[in-house]
């Protein structure tokens, strides 16, 4: 039986969110400032998006470009503010100075987010040892997804890693969902779906004309159609 693949689309504002839902997105990742690869949006923006769409929204918690946690107190405060505004799912991921997971920062956020689901984002693609990172994070409450290209260079370079990791699904450290994203193209879909990848994340690919353009419902629909036409393993 074919399992419907999850399609997550990056949204910067209400216009993006409405278009993504109209095109068939299953979930949004809400961010601001893609010049820094996605930072925490304003609480007001989240509230507007939440009121405009009825698909799930995951909110980025990231204060600056790079993968250092920075001011964890500030991240905790904004996470709590987002929760007060109705957010129930988040995206974050921090590395320490040697490329391991910053467990202190992660654990402080997880404790205050009190059971919310969350995605460890593409910091995993910059980890010194991604297998060790997964195993160190395996028991973190709420962690249900890794957003990864398999490589810091994108899916083209990381495809063998993605295929190897999805084949380990269910092993310790590999119980979370693998969501492919980062330089993802439509021609990657058949091989990833055949291997069992069931979640896909797009940003620029959902737009006509790069990040200066809004999400286009037609572009999202093209991805929805491709995912639905490619059976899983």
From TrEMBL:
It comes from the Bacteria. GO terms for molecular function: copper ion binding. Pfam families: CutC (PF03932). Transmembrane segments: none annotated. Belongs to the CutC family. This is Copper homeostasis protein cutC homolog.
């Amino acid at each position: 039986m074919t399992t419907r693949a999850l399609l997550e689309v990056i949204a910067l504002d209400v216009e993006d969110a409405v278009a993504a839902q109209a095109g068939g997105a299953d979930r949004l990742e809400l961010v601001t400032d893609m010049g820094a690869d996605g930072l925490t949006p304003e609480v007001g923006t989240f509230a507007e998006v939440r009121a405009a769409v009825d698909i799930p929204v995951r909110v980025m918690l990231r204060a600056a470009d790079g993968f250092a946690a920075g001011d964890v107190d500030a991240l905790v405060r904004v996470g709590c503010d987002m929760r007060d505004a109705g957010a129930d799912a988040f995206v974050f991921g921090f590395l320490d100075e040697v490329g391991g997971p910053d467990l202190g920062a992660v654990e402080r956020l997880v404790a205050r987010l009190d059971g919310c689901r969350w995605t460890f984002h593409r910091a995993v693609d910059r980890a010194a040892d991604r297998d060790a990172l997964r195993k160190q994070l395996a028991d973190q409450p709420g962690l249900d997804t890794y957003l990864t290209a398999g490589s810091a260079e994108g899916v083209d370079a990381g495809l063998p890693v993605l295929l190897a990791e999805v084949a380990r699904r269910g092993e310790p450290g590999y119980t979370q969902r693998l969501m492919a994203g980062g330089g993802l193209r439509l021609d990657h879909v058949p091989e990833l779906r055949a291997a069992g990848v069931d979640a896909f994340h797009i940003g620029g690919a959902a737009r006509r004309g790069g990040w200066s353009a809004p999400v286009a419902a037609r572009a999202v629909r093209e991805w929805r159609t491709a995912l639905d036409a490619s059976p899983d393993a």
